[in-house]
């Protein structure tokens, strides 16, 4: 998801600072993105941090923005973890880990980015507006058939509500919205999609468009919400689920 959205943002002509928990991103994919950035006249940089850690996240964001050519105007946050398990026996420490990354991590990232935008506004004569986009999930609305994942679903519902509150607090200078995907074919979901073909077929059948999504399906929605094309949209969740939740 992150790589696909970086590609889309670079194609729109913006510089990008990628942030992830690993020391280095996947070499081939990152090299291709660097080639794209060069072709578009953009700058692509990378910084490592654990977004559930308040101090390291703030440091990474400040370092990234200090090297930027332009004011900081857009954020896409898609870091998340999750796995299935019967709620009666689901380990509480694992539930806390999911909440820490998916929900508290979103708040930490929002705080780090929001403070940087406010600092820019204080020192620049013209007001700098920004747009923040958080990746939530259709799991914030529904119970996923065949996969008990209460902690994950609760964390994503929390992201949706967190977004509405931040949007109300930070308007009009910062717009805050979410995208709620359906099931996505990514490395994180590969294991269950391969081992449970019954679920793969069920989820595909339950989706009006008859297929599971790919990371590329979220390129347009993310760029739209980041851009001035969505200038009158805030506190909104954009469901991109192929019609799964509309039955």
Q: What is the overall silhouette?
A: globular
Order of SSEs, N→C? HEHEHEHEHEHHHE
Assign the structural class, choosing from mainly alpha, mainly beta, alpha/beta, alpha+beta, or little secondary structure: alpha/beta
CATH topology: Rossmann fold
The DSSP helix count reads 8
Q: What profile does the largest beta sheet have?
A: 4 strands, parallel
Radius of gyration based on Cα positions: 18 Å
What number of structural domains do the residues give? 1
As a percent range, the share of helical residues equals 40-55%
CATH class group: Alpha Beta
The poorly predicted ranges are none
Q: Determine the strand fraction and express it as a percent band.
A: 5-15%
Average pLDDT reading: 95
CATH superfamily name? NAD(P)-binding Rossmann-like Domain
Number-wise, the strands total 6
CATH architecture: 3-Layer(aba) Sandwich
Enumerate the strands of the largest sheet in spatial order, edge to edge or round the barrel.
3-4-5-6
* Gap between N and C termini: 26 Å
């Amino acid at each position: 998801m992150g790589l696909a959205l970086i590609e889309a943002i670079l194609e729109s002509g913006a510089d990008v600072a990628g942030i992830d928990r690993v020391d280095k991103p996947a070499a081939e994919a990152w090299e291709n993105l660097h080639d794209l950035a060069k072709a578009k006249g953009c700058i692509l940089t990378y910084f490592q941090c654990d977004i559930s850690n308040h101090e390291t996240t703030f440091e990474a964001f400040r370092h990234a923005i200090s090297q930027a050519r332009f004011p900081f105007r857009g954020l896409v946050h898609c870091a998340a973890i999750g796995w299935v398990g019967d709620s009666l026996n689901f380990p509480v420490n694992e539930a806390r880990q999911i909440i820490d990354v998916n929900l508290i991590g979103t708040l930490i990232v929002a705080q780090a980015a929001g403070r940087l935008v406010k600092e820019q506004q204080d020192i620049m004569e013209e007001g700098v507006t920004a747009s923040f986009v958080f990746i939530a999930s259709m799991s914030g609305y529904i119970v996923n058939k065949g996969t008990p994942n209460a902690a994950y679903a609760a964390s994503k519902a929390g992201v949706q509500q967190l977004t509405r509150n931040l949007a109300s607090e930070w308007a009009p200078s910062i717009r805050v919205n979410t995208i709620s995907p359906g099931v996505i074919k990514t490395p994180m979901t590969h294991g269950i999609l391969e081992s449970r073909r019954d679920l793969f077929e069920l989820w595909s059948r339950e989706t009006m468009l008859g297929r599971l999504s790919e990371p590329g399906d979220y390129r347009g929605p993310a760029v739209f919400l980041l851009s001035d094309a969505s200038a009158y949209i805030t506190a909104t969740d954009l469901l991109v689920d192929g019609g799964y939740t509309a039955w």
